[in-house]
Every structure is written in C-alpha cells, then in structure tokens.
Amino acid sequence: MHILITGAGGMIGRKLIDRLVRDGQVGGKAITRMTLHDYAAPGKPAVSYPVATSGGDVSLPGEAEKLVKDAPDLIFHLAAVVSGEAEADFEKGYRVNIDGMRYLLEAVRAKGNKPRFVFTSSIAVFGGDLPDPIPDDYHQTPPNSYGAAKVVCEQLLADYTRRGFLDGVGIRFPGITVRPGKPNAAASGFYSSIIREPLDGKEAILPVPLTKRNTHASPRAAIGFLIRAAEIDGARLGLRRNLNMPGVAVTTGEQIEALRKIAGDKVVARIRQVPDEVIMKIFPNESVRFDAKRALSLGFVPDKDFEEIIRIHIEEDRGGKFVQ
Amino acid sequence: MHILITGAGGMIGRKLIDRLVRDGQVGGKAITRMTLHDYAAPGKPAVSYPVATSGGDVSLPGEAEKLVKDAPDLIFHLAAVVSGEAEADFEKGYRVNIDGMRYLLEAVRAKGNKPRFVFTSSIAVFGGDLPDPIPDDYHQTPPNSYGAAKVVCEQLLADYTRRGFLDGVGIRFPGITVRPGKPNAAASGFYSSIIREPLDGKEAILPVPLTKRNTHASPRAAIGFLIRAAEIDGARLGLRRNLNMPGVAVTTGEQIEALRKIAGDKVVARIRQVPDEVIMKIFPNESVRFDAKRALSLGFVPDKDFEEIIRIHIEEDRGGKFVQ
Question: What pLDDT is attached to residue B118?
C-alpha cells in the first residue's frame, strides 16, 4: 500500500507517520511506500520501503499532479492554514484551504485509481445557534473562514466520492489538545497553552471564561481517528461522508482542575485570565459538544477523560516529566 | 439603485426583470440603472433609465470584473448550469456553478461597495435520509453535483458576508413549477412537463411514482422570494444567510388531480407513466418538504396551493387559455 500524506511536517502529520511506521500496515495491508509532502520537505522516517519527500505549495497549479503521479492507494490530506491565520489572511486561507483541496481532488480524478481519501475537517464547521449537544445531522454554519473552507471541502469530497472519482472520508476533528511545541496561529491555541505552558514552567493566558466548553481529542486519539477513517468500509457511509468525531467535552475550568489533579496547585498558578475579545468573536459559542453517535457506532474511539489527555501529553511529548 | 442580474436571459431572469420594470423600485429605492448578463446577451426592457446588456461566460476569468465595474447596489446571481446538465458534464457544472460564483464574489470584494447579493440556491442541497418535514437547521447532504455546488456557493456567500465584503442572502428555491416553454436540462423538469405539456395538447411523461412528493413554487412566488431577499434587513439573518423557502408540498398524484380539477380528464389523459431509473437516482427521496419557519417569519410568501400554481401558469404563460 502506497500512502500519500500532505501536511506531513505538521504535528499531526509527524505523529501519524510515527504510528504508520510502528504499525507497518493499514487495515491489514502492508505499507510498501510513502509520499510525504509539506510546505518545507518533511524528514524521512527510517523504514525499508521507499519514501519520497517533497516541499512546495499544494495550492499552486501542477503541485498536486506531482504528488499523485504514482497513484497512491491512501491519501491523508492534512495540509491547511489554521483558523487564526485564515482569518487574518483571507486570500491565503482560501488559496490553501479551498484551492489546495480542489487541485488535489482534480489530480486524483485525472489519475483515475480511486484511492481512499481521508480529509481532516473540523468542528469549526459549526457556529451560530448550537444545540447542546450538537446532533450528527445539524447544519453547518461556520463562524470563521477556516470553518467555511472546511465545509466547502467536505462537500467537494462527498461529491467526488458520489461520482466515483475517489473514496472519501472526512473527519471533523475536535480541538486537538494538548498540542505540543510552540503555540501556532490557531485562534484555539489557548486550549493547549493553558496545559502545556504551565507544565513547562511558563505562564499561560486564558483568554475566555472558565465556563466555556469545548470538545477535545489528544493527538493520539486524533491519529486513531485518521487510521479508522483509512480502514472503514466506505459503503457504510452512504452520501454522508463527513463525520463528527467523538471527544472529551470539558470547560476550560474543568481542564484546569484536571491539570491541578495531575500537576498540583503550583503548576495551575501559572495560568492567568486575560479576556480577549478577538478570540471570543472567532469562537462565540459557550458550549461546543457533540453526540457523535454515528462516529461512535462506526468504531471511532475518543479519549477517556481530560486527565487522560494531559497524561498522554506528558508521556508522549515531555518524556514523562513536567516542571513542578 | 443599480441592479445587476446574471442569468438574466433565463426564465426566472426574464420574469424578474418584468417585475422590476413594473415596480420601478426595490425596498422603496427607485431603480436608476440595470446591468443584464447571460451567456447570450439578453434583450433590453423598454425603460427610461440606462440598461447595459452583455453576453459571455461568467465562469471565465475577467468576465465578473466587467459586470461589477460600475458598482451595482443589488446583485441577483441567477446564472447556473441546471441539475441534469451538471450531472452529465461534471467539469462544466463545477466551472459555471462554483467558479462562476467565486469569480463574481471576488470581483465584488475587489470593488469594495458591499452590495446586497442575492443568490439562488436550491432544495437540491438536501438528500440522503431526510426527515419529513425538513427543519431549517437540517444538514446539507446533496444527492447530486448541482446541489453540492449550491452548498459550496452558500458557504462562500455566508463567509463573504461575515467578512463584510458584501451583504448576502441565499434562497433555496423549491421546484419552480410550472416552468413555461421548452423542457430544459433540469432532471426535475417533469414536475412542470406533466402540467405544461397536457395544457398544450401534448403528451407528457411522468418518470416517478404518483406518491413522490416535492415542494413547489410558481415562478411568480419565486420572483416574490427574490424581491423579499433583496429588501430584507440583513442584520435579521445573523450568520445564517441561506434560507429554505416555503412552498406547496404535493405528490405528483396531487399535482395531476389539481390539473384535473382545472382542466378536466381529457387533459390529464395526456400524461403517461414511464418510470426512469436515472431520474429516480438523481432524486432518491420519496418526500421533500420543509417547515421553512424562518423564511415564513421573515416575510417570504408561498403560493396558496397547487391549483393556484396551475392558474398562474395559465394566466401568465398561456394568455388564460389551454388546449381542452
């Protein structure tokens, strides 16, 4: 099986590659080849099968054709401009998040080998008046350009699938928490920062109220979603190719209490509340959670609770240690 | 007020122009200028104010800029490839229905005058498992490429509105019935043909069961929707810029009985049932109707019943007569 990953150099991309290398197979089929792409060429994993890496902008004409020239059997399209950046730079957001997807879909259609195409969408497709929890058949009214682009891509994915050009599965990631490393330009970055920075001995800013609830998945659970999306029988999805993923729904206050349980008061004391109107405008909903019945019945598995999410971060990204 | 209409040469376009010429104003503002566009240049109405007409393909780069060069205050974007054609010619459907919209939105954004932008979407955005009736907040899972393109455009419209580039209102037309003139390439054309052709003394084919229910609006009601969409206070819509329109929900059997009441058995006898698998696959749902609560509360007015829809056709398109 030949696997193509776009956005392979990002946090999710790198963790996905680690998992694929460890597993050696997807859905019982041995991995025999990888094509890894990102804006800057990603590193090569140490494996016995061929791995091609390349750097470039997938939203430029001609780039996508190069990526699929050897007809990958499985595509993970992770490349995207994140929410804060898409809001700040309208044109770049549309170019990368919409045109990039369209070029890749068209290249796959032209190639004609009908691969499984896993697309990472987001809970940012939901906004406006939201029921609590959000049912699977709720309409998409994104509150930002990032979410709007995700809905557009979901629709293209579903239509290309229906037309028989590929076999698409779109998964709407909850917030990925705890995101390791430096803060990125995602406006939702604070959900991770308030855990990661204090564990690193640094101060973190909480820009929203303690009562604001969001749904989270650890990077490990998110990689599990991607693998499940790659393996699942597409016929079970019918026309509805895009799925709300299950997650752990907690308020920022509950996040902080979970951190206190694991790391103590001194770590929690590094969090400062500084309300930010811009961020609250990008995420205006007080509670965002999902029943995710369909995904649960289709075998997508969430983390157990937010403490588990913090433990996964400490184990996977901090070598089991944190700054007391 | 300067009004731009794309697809101005089509059936809805021509009836909209007639209405605008008759009214002389929209929302209390006098019409002072029109720009009318279609693939082939549409005819000029006899009015005292300037009317520019042009022909061309709005899905080609540069065309949209020409249309908005004089900063229209109100845009009706009606131009589209219909469902049957979009299903038969994938590339043309995407080019006209998606790229055409994108170019026009971009031209409006570049111009910077933030016009009211009325977009005609369709109930084809709904498919798969549908509740009966469909509530306003139901998700969009289009069963065909035409519907997929409409969802994409709705999302672009809402995002451009949210970003402050224009003031968009998208209206999801029910089936427009009775469509006058020759059958077009819409796969849904039979809903009109089974009324129009028998009234014209000709045989008509019913390709679906008598129990299949759809929601209809007369061209006159549809024009009413467009005018209401042009006039409404955008602030009342919030993030949800795309609205299910109200209509008359009847089965094809009920359509035929309404025809019998108005025109008699001899006219009805001209309808022949010939099941068509291709058409049933494009419209797989047994019943498509809406509560349309939001649109009703916002002042969009449907026809009274299907008999009224037939009478409007006889009056407006047949000079009050039909072939007994």
Answer: 98
B67 and B202, same domain (yes or no): no
Same domain, B252 and B115: no
Interface of chain A against chain B, CB under 8 Å? 90, 127-129, 136-145, 148, 151-152, 155-156, 158-159, 162-163, 238-240
Per-residue pLDDT band at B185 (split at 50, 70, 90): low
Closest-CA distance of chain B to residue A159, Å:
6
List Cα–Cα distances, B306 to B177, B190, B216, B309, B317, in angstroms.
9, 15, 8, 5, 16
Is A30 a domain residue? yes
B128, B137, B158: residue with CB nearest A240: B128
Pairing of strands B204-206, A167-173: unpaired
Encoding tokens for residue B113? 């005058």
Asked, for residue A109, whether it belongs to a domain, the answer is yes
CA–CA separation, A195 and A257 (whole Å):
11
Could you tell me the residue range of the domain that residue A114 belongs to? 2-174+217-244
Provide the residue type at B169 as one letter: V
Cis check for the bond before B51: say yes or no (omega within 30 of 0).
no
CATH of the domain at B283: 3.90.25.10
Query: What's the order of all strands across the beta sheet hosting B242-244?
Result: B51-55, B33-38, B2-6, B74-77, B116-122, B167-173, B242-244
> What's the structural domain count of chain B?
2
ipTM: 0.94
Reported as a single tens digit per residue, the pLDDT across A31-70 is 999 999 999 999 999 999 999 999 999 899 899 999 999 9
